[in-house]
Amino acid sequence: MAQTIQSTLPTKRIVSKAHLDAWLDSPTHADVVRFVEQLNQSVVGVKLTDTVEESQAVSALVSVLDQVEQIYHDTPPVDNGKSRFGNPAFRDFYDKVAARAPELHARIPGLDSAYVNELCVYFCESWGNRTRVDYGSGMELNFICWLLCLQKLGVISEEDSKAIVIKVFWKYMRIARLLQSGYWLEPAGSHGAQGLDDYHFAVFIFGSAQLRDHKYLRPKCIHDNEILDEFAKDYMYLSYVRYINSIKTASLRWHSPMLDDISGVRQWAKVNDGMLKMYRAEVLAKLPVAQHFLFGALLPYPDAPELEAHHEESDVHVDSHGHLHVRGESEFSSCCGIAIPSGFAAAQAAKEAAGGAGGLRSVGDQAGVRRIPFD
Fold first, then answer.
1. In which domain, by residue range, is 174 found?
2. pLDDT of 120-142, one tens digit each?
3. Exposed, middle or buried: residue 31 (CB in 10 Å: 0-12, 13-18, 19+)?
4. How many domains would you assign to the chain?
């Protein structure tokens, strides 16, 4: 099908509650959910250290990400004074990636050149927002959409799913960490309103899938530093919890309350099922996140002409940051548009403060996080 449609540059289309509802009922939404579930199922019981066969296309994608990592190393942060917010060198990094994106895509075997410009939009937006110098779950979603588009074009297949998660997605996560820590990227949008992490969500989906049928490790093991140290190399969920602990001085309960709550669940299968449900509800179905979803030829917006000029002013308002909010969703109204310093910057400030006291409440106010049952 992808070969018979004309490529278009992806754009934002969701500007009201009615648009959001149309998106949730659309084939594109179903495709995204199905793709995430496909990737999730492919890594059940698979370790990061397992030998995973790579197709030529998967190897090419890893090579593309290697080039992005090299661009980061070639673009060091600049002296930003005592600012604890995003480093302006990130914009130089973004521009370099954007300039090289067409050439990088030309290295991917089997890719129709007619779709390169469309794919480049998802690819570039995967690394963060150039204007705000921030990063959030919407950027992670752009990377997933980039992969989905490649599958729609036949570049990668469903049989590649295991390698896509273990090799490609995990490589992406490691680069994202470099950008967040090196450029002090601010948490975007909800500032970790899901209570998992300041920046990411999908890593906990795929990470819990890896552990889904584990005979010995239980969700409560995230509180055991010895287990985290031993098994972080094998499981991305444990690796990322260990990583969070390394940059936050407060307890997990303080800065990642949902992760702390989930640790009380008895089975990883329930955690994994809950993560998938939570992703659909808290990322794909929330206007402050979904408003940034990009629709093109490969991921089309539903054909609904009557919605083109539809705005529900009584239900939706726009903040000073240009973000849309549904009235009543208070968990977003108090933080979106307010500059929140990077947790890495806060951690650095804590280290520099001689005799600094107490834990670090680094990003956002988690007091109003809505609990989502996993049992």
1. 2-306
2. 999 999 999 999 989 888 899 99
3. middle
4. 1
